[in-house]
């Protein structure tokens, strides 16, 4: 029966679809949120959740209670959640896809279906082209234009699904750890786009050397989370995990390890540029070695450093390998010394149970102490700190401050309203040690002007998650990043790299542009629970991809140094 059990990815997809259909029908937001959280938990669980449910143990997972466990059992026995089957019989199949389009939330998608009778993507395209959508209140010519643009783009579903780096990296590291512990293993390393800290990855690549390649490949295929062996040869194997992740393991002789690791780390653009430069010198570069074309001599290397040195380059950090100037800089010896995780002295955007966080102030601060921070900003959402709650939180911070070996700073995350105003009074903002201002709603409603207006405030220190994107869920807003960077420099406002796995906002391209303009950036976790404080590693990866050094990142400094660089306190009174 074990082979017939639905995989975690299939289970999660059903709960996500159920939540979508419920949202379309305007049902209880609490239940919708519960199903979405369950889907995320199921997707990220390495063992079979279906098996746990049949054993009555799925309830041990966070966010999964008796009702959801029963629904998982329904899938294992009948193929589908019963409530999902009923709703699918009512809601046309393609209507849910409308919700993924810009400006079309569940309410508008429902009105398109109910009021205009549009039930397919093709009907939606035709109605937009015929300018019929503008007859529906709330939609205008610009909406029709955006919908047509989105429908013209290739669907993300084409080809293998990409997964968030934040989900893939722990699985890759666990795999490397398991393989490295095998008696036959010598060197084992992550490769591919995950090693370059790309925001999303497709296949999860591992490179290894071994005294007995067959034994290591056999052990890889027999790892407990493997549900399918897609390929198994003498030097390579591909397996699929319970979550639907594809892992590739390549085993090579020790003397070629550097060549293969360099090749399979990529990127493709970097490797093409590397090969083209080598050809001009009479060399041919491949994953197996570097060949002198005239003599046929093949050079293999045990380390990447030797590969790059032979070709005339300083070693290039994986995060920089995108053919964006790194080869010329490496040849000239001008690569930047990139910021490192250990350089961070504090986290300046975090949440607790005072707003929508999952863990208490005391617990979050304790975790910050464990991480060795010198200071820690508590920046709960402003709308949750009304009616005296801000003062109550301050009292708890004051009581806790004397008992911990770091500085707890009283921050807040304020909303930037549709008119650019902040949802907190100046008198309240003046009491804050640090203010993050973010757009949380009406994302397509003049985002650039709203952010520019917020930066005019003498109290706003930082703009949070600038483009409001959620990777795979919500496209970035059409914001003029160049104008924002100019305004940030003019007003003394900082921008953050938000380290949440589905945000990583600023992008590496935008962060590099900010750096080149002379703007200091922050790397923040935006952590809403204890484990999320570790997200800063992903943000540092993003910063490194943007060529940021320690000096480019504000929170690598002491708090006194931060205070000297921020907006003058005199301007705040």
Compute the number of strand runs.
Answer: 17
Q: Could you list the spans in which at least 5 consecutive residues all have pLDDT below 50?
A: 155-160
CATH superfamily of the largest domain: Metal-dependent hydrolases
Structural class: alpha/beta
Principal-axis shape: globular
Number of contiguous helices:
24
> What is the fold-level CATH name, i.e. the topology of the largest domain?
TIM Barrel
Distance between the ends:
69 Å
Oligomer: single chain
Mean pLDDT: 91
**Beta-strand content:** 5-15%
Indicate the CATH architecture of the largest domain. Alpha-Beta Barrel
Largest pleated sheet:
7 strands, parallel
**Strand arrangement, major sheet:** 11-12-13-14-15-16-17
Secondary structure elements and pairings:
Layout (H helix, E strand, L loop, with lengths): L7 H17 L4 H16 L4 H6 L11 H13 L3 H7 L6 H4 L7 H11 L4 H9 L11 H12 L10 E2 H16 L4 E6 L1 H4 L4 E2 L2 E7 L2 H9 L4 E7 L3 E6 L4 E7 L4 H9 L2 H12 L3 E4 L2 E4 L5 E2 L4 H7 L15 H7 L13 E2 L13 H10 L4 E4 L10 H13 L5 E9 L10 H4 L4 E5 L8 H9 L6 E2 L17 H11 L2 E5 L9 H10 L3 E4 L11 H10 L13 H7 L8
Parallel strand pairs: 4-7, 11-12, 12-13, 13-14, 14-15, 15-16, 16-17
Antiparallel strand pairs: 1-3, 2-4, 5-6, 6-7, 8-9, 9-10
Helix pairs in contact: 1-2, 1-5, 8-9, 13-15, 20-21, 21-22, 22-23
């Amino acid at each position: 029966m074990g082979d017939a059990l639905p995989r975690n990815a299939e289970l999660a997809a059903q709960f996500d679809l159920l939540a979508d259909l419920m949202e379309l029908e305007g049902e209880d937001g609490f239940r919708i949120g519960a199903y979405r959280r369950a889907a995320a938990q199921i997707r990220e669980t390495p063992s079979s959740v279906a098996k746990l449910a049949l054993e009555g143990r799925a309830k041990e997972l966070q966010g999964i209670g008796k009702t959801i466990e029963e629904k998982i059992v329904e899938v294992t026995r009948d193929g589908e959640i019963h409530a999902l089957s009923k709703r699918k019989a009512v809601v046309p199949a393609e209507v849910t896809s409308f919700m993924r389009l810009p400006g079309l939330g569940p309410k508008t998608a429902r009105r398109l279906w109910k009021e205009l009778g549009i039930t397919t993507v093709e009907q939606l395209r035709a109605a937009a082209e015929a300018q019929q959508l503008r007859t529906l209140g709330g939609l205008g010519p610009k909406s029709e234009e955006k919908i047509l643009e989105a429908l013209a783009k290739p669907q993300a579903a084409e080809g293998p699904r990409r997964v968030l780096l934040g989900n893939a990296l722990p699985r890759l590291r666990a795999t490397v750890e398991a393989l490295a512990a095998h008696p036959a293993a010598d060197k084992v390393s992550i490769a591919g786009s995950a090693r370059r800290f790309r925001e999303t990855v497709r296949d999860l690549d591992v490179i290894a050397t071994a005294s007995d390649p067959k034994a290591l490949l056999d052990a890889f295929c027999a790892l407990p989370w493997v549900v399918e062996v897609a390929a198994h040869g003498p030097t390579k194997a591909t397996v699929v995990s319970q979550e639907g992740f594809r892992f590739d393991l390549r085993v090579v002789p020790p003397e070629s390890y550097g060549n293969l690791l360099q090749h399979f780390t990529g990127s493709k653009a970097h490797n093409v540029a590397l090969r083209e430069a080598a050809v001009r010198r009479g060399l041919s570069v491949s994953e197996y070695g570097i060949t002198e074309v005239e003599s046929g001599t093949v050079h293999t290397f045990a380390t990447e450093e030797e590969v790059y040195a032979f070709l005339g380059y300083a070693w290039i950090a994986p995060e920089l390998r995108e053919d964006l100037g790194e080869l010329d800089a490496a040849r000239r010896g001008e690569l930047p010394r990139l910021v490192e995780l250990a350089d961070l002295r504090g986290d300046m955007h975090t949440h607790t149970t005072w707003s929508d966080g999952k863990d208490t102030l005391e617990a979050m601060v304790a975790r910050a102490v464990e991480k060795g921070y010198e200071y820690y900003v508590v920046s709960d959402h402003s709308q949750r700190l009304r009616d005296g709650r801000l003062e109550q939180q301050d009292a708890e911070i004051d009581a806790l401050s004397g008992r911990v070996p770091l500085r707890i700073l009283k921050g807040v995350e304020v909303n930037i309203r549709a008119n650019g105003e902040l949802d907190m009074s100046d008198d309240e903002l003046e009491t804050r040690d640090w203010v993050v201002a973010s757009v949380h709603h009406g994302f397509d409603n003049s985002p650039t002007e709203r952010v520019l207006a917020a930066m005019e405030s003498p109290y706003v220190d930082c703009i949070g998650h600038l483009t409001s994107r959620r990777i795979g869920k919500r496209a970035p807003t059409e914001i003029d990043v160049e104008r924002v960077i100019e305004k940030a420099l003019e007003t003394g406002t900082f921008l953050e790299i938000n380290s949440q796995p589905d945000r990583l906002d600023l992008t590496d391209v935008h962060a590099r542009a900010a750096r080149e303009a002379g703007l200091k950036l922050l790397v923040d976790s935006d952590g809403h629970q204890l484990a999320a404080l570790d997200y800063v590693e992903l943000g540092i990866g993003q910063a490194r991809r943007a060529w940021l050094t320690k000096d480019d990142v504000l929170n690598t400094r002491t708090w006194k140094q931060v205070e000297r660089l921020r907006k003058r306190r005199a301007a705040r009174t």
